[in-house]
Amino acid sequence: MNLKILSFAGKTIEIANAISLTIDTKMGQITVLNSHSPLITALKPCVAYIKYFDENNMPKREDFAIGGGILEVAWTNVKVLADMLMDIDEVSADKATDAIKKAEELMAKYKDSTDKIDMEKFVEAEEMLMKSIAQLKLSELK
After folding, report:
1. Are 68 and 82 in contact (CB under 8 A)?
2. Do 52 and 140 form a contact (C-beta atoms < 8 A)?
3. Are residues 46 and 97 in the same domain?
4. Residue 49 and residue 29: Cα distance in Å, rounded?
5. 76 and 107 part of one domain
6. For residue 41, what are the CA distances in angstroms to 63, 85, 131?
7. Total domain count for the chain?
8. Which of 127, 20, 125 is nearest to 82 (CA)?
């Protein structure tokens, strides 16, 4: 299957001979195989992975962290649009841990607020927490 993953920052992963994509949707984890039924679904921050054949026709696996986004499947074509895309070489456990702490502090600060702006800040902090956890999980695979 043809797989294309795009981030809002412009980073792209393209694999023409993908075997599968395993990724977390808002409804749970799925694995997309060749000729999968058409599907459009929302994604949540996670560690996802691709299985594919390299240029020597050897099976390979590539793990990466994504933020929220959209998955579109159309039989043999799969597209992911994500607001964060990091491969295993880019991720830092220390930075992810620091970001988790910061997000938890912000969530604690805004959790009991009734102000609309504070509630929006809480949701942003929660999203930062989920992305940072995905990055930390990816760093543990090194």
Report:
1. yes
2. no
3. no
4. 11
5. no
6. 20, 17, 18
7. 2
8. 127
